[in-house]
From TrEMBL, chain A:
Function field: The proteasome is a multicatalytic proteinase complex which is characterized by its ability to cleave peptides with Arg, Phe, Tyr, Leu, and Glu adjacent to the leaving group at neutral or slightly basic pH.
Low complexity compositional bias, start-end: 245-258, 267-278
Keyword Nucleus: yes
Keyword Ligase carried by entry: no
Subunit structure of this chain's protein: Component of the 20S core complex of the 26S proteasome. The 26S proteasome is composed of a core protease (CP), known as the 20S proteasome, capped at one or both ends by the 19S regulatory particle (RP/PA700). The 20S proteasome core is composed of 28 subunits that are arranged in four stacked rings, resulting in a barrel-shaped structure. The two end rings are each formed by seven alpha subunits, and the two central rings are each formed by seven beta subunits. The catalytic chamber with the active sites is on the inside of the barrel. The 20S proteasome core is composed of 28 subunits that are arranged in four stacked rings, resulting in a barrel-shaped structure. The two end rings are each formed by seven alpha subunits, and the two central rings are each formed by seven beta subunits.
Record's subcellular location: Cytoplasm; Nucleus
Family: Belongs to the peptidase T1A family.
Pfam family for this entry, one: Proteasome_A_N
Highest taxon in the source lineage: Eukaryota
Protein name: Proteasome subunit alpha type
Organism: Carya illinoinensis (Pecan)
Automatic annotation (TrEMBL), chain B:
GO biological process: one example: proteolysis involved in protein catabolic process
Provenance organism: Carya illinoinensis (Pecan)
Identification of the protein by name: Proteasome subunit beta
Subcellular location: Cytoplasm; Nucleus
Family in the record: Belongs to the peptidase T1B family.
Known partners and oligomeric status: Component of the proteasome complex. Component of the 20S core complex of the 26S proteasome. The 26S proteasome is composed of a core protease (CP), known as the 20S proteasome, capped at one or both ends by the 19S regulatory particle (RP/PA700). The 20S proteasome core is composed of 28 subunits that are arranged in four stacked rings, resulting in a barrel-shaped structure. The two end rings are each formed by seven alpha subunits, and the two central rings are each formed by seven beta subunits. The catalytic chamber with the active sites is on the inside of the barrel.
Function per UniProt: Component of the proteasome, a multicatalytic proteinase complex which is characterized by its ability to cleave peptides with Arg, Phe, Tyr, Leu, and Glu adjacent to the leaving group at neutral or slightly basic pH. The proteasome has an ATP-dependent proteolytic activity. Non-catalytic component of the proteasome, a multicatalytic proteinase complex which is characterized by its ability to cleave peptides with Arg, Phe, Tyr, Leu, and Glu adjacent to the leaving group at neutral or slightly basic pH. The proteasome has an ATP-dependent proteolytic activity.
Length: 278, 223
């Protein structure tokens, strides 16, 4: 991305037909800490990496409940994300009030996209600097969408945004065909592994990640730290890289065991030295 | 030339009575389930009680269309509160919200006569009683609706606490046990049903305590 004479205004086209301000806004998304989403036919799992600025401060909230059946994970300018979450919540409440039924997630993302588009066509506004992974339910099951600052939105089986998200995407691309029929547990496991991929060597523990689940018959909830740590331990994710192979999920347990060579089968992260330190 | 009177009213009175009684660690909210219009019964099985929050229940008599609109509004506002504060609204907070919501329509009121019952943040029972435009007061017990003129004097006789004007302020909640309070409410409705034509069919009782919310029903005279 180079500084040039067509990037001052969002309402200025470049000769190549690009809106640089919009593209710069998408850069802001890439700079934020990672957020990951995956879905099966009945569940959506959202996970994100929480990076606090310093040890003294708390981390920013990146996953928001929008309604019982919709949740959103954001990456980029979290302040913009908060404002958009508030808008989404308000739309859901108004729809429920008028129609006594939950707002289908597919409609919500269109409204969100239109809202983002407005900011790409007003000289006195700037695009939202946040990417949103919207997970939700409608009559046909679970869906995952990605909303861009550009006003585009796409539906995904699984996706990752933010810094070092490419590592997560690579993992997800290998495994996504299995996700449709995944169980809730397997989906969470894959989300945690994908999150671990973005950490590039740092130890995965519940204090630096947040996981949220929603599904048919299960309202959106952010899993508490203890539960997440138990899941990390159970899936023995503290260990080395998972053996790379497109193995079906049935062999997942074996995979986890094979990868954790020195760890044994009991979860005991406190007792062992973190193998990643080798 | 006499002044022209309106031949259409935006309001109707669907009748019914509501009662709430606060105890040391519980709250009982009750209402009959008869919905009427004029001298007709519209249905014998309509709930006037709405759970607004985990520890806050409202019973309203009057014009049920306005009551429904009011309940929906409060439920939506409660959702917003939960999103913003990450917790449920307390009963006193909901009480203030209801008052403000009613006064907002001071010049085209909700024809809704409400009693709000629940547990405060210490787990003690609390009851708030309202008029149609939001004037409210925290009390130990209250009744509203078509049977309230029959019910209130009886509750005064059984539950009346020392005047709230006395100093130091004395506890408004009744020393009765939960089962005694429920029995009292059943007695009260059975009596009101005898003489108030708009009260009857079935009694719905909601009891809030530390364990949660419980519902009980009792048949009333259907004439």
């Amino acid at each position: 991305m180079f500084r040039n004479q067509y990037d001052t205004d969002v309402t200025t086209w470049s000769p190549a037909g690009r809106l640089f301000q919009v593209e710069y806004a998408m850069e802001a998304v890439k700079q934020g800490s990672a957020a990951i989403g995956l879905r099966s036919k009945t569940h959506v799992v959202l996970a994100c990496v929480n990076k606090a600025n310093s040890e003294l401060s708390s981390h920013q909230k990146k996953i928001f409940k929008v309604d019982d059946h919709i949740g959103v994970a954001i990456a980029g300018l979290t302040a913009d994300g908060r404002v958009l979450s508030r808008y989404m919540r308000s739309e859901c409440i108004n729809h429920s009030f008028t129609y006594e039924s939950p707002l289908p997630v597919g409609r919500l993302v269109v409204q969100l996209a239109d809202k983002a588009q407005v900011c790409t066509q007003r000289s006195w506004k700037r695009p939202f600097g946040v990417g949103l992974l919207v997970g939700g339910l409608d009559e046909s099951g679970a869906h995952l969408y990605y909303n861009c600052p550009s006003g585009n939105y796409f539906e995904y089986q699984a996706f990752a945004i933010g810094s070092r998200s490419q590592a997560a995407k690579t993992y997800l691309e290998r495994r996504f065909e299995n996700f449709v029929d995944s169980s809730r547990e397997d989906l969470i496991r894959d989300a945690l592994i994908a999150t671990r991929e973005t950490l590039q060597g740092e130890k995965l523990r519940s204090s630096i990640c947040t996981v949220a689940v929603l599904g048919v018959g299960e309202p959106f909830q952010i899993l508490d730290q203890e539960t997440v740590q138990q899941l990390i331990d159970k899936f023995e994710l503290v260990g080395e890289e998972e053996t790379p192979a497109a193995e079906p999920d049935a062999a997942a347990a074996d995979e986890g065991g094979a990868a954790e060579q020195g760890g044994g089968t009991e979860p005991g992260p406190a007792a062992e030295p973190a193998p990643m330190d080798i | 030339m006499t002044k022209q009177q309106a031949n259409w009213s935006p309001y109707d009175n669907n009748g019914g009575s509501c009662v709430a009684v606060a105890g040391a660690d519980y709250c009982v909210v009750a209402a009959d389930t008869r919905m009427s219009s004029g001298y007709n019964i519209l249905t014998r099985d309509y709930s006037k009680i709405c759970k607004l929050a985990d520890k806050c229940v409202m019973a309203s008599s009057g014009f049920q269309a306005d009551v429904k609109a009011l309940q929906k509004l409060l439920a939506a506002r409660h959702l917003i509160y939960q999103h913003q504060h990450n917790k449920q609204m307390s009963c006193p907070a909901m009480a203030q919200l209801l008052s403000n919501t009613l006064y907002y329509k001071r010049f085209f009121p909700y024809y809704s006569f409400n009693v709000l019952g629940g547990l405060d943040s210490e787990g003690k029972g609390c009851v708030f009683t309202y008029d149609a435009v939001g004037s409210y007061e925290k009390v130990g017990y209250s009744s509203q609706g078509s049977g309230s003129t029959l019910i209130m004097p009886f509750l005064d006789n059984q539950l009346k606490s020392p005047s709230p004007l006395l100093l130091p302020a004395l506890d408004a909640v009744t020393p009765l046990s939960e089962s005694e309070a429920v029995d009292l409410v059943k007695t009260v409705f059975a009596s009101a049903t005898e003489r108030d034509i708009y009260t009857g069919d079935k009694l719905e009782i909601v009891i809030l305590n530390a364990e949660g919310i419980r519902r009980e029903y009792m048949e009333l005279r259907k004439d």
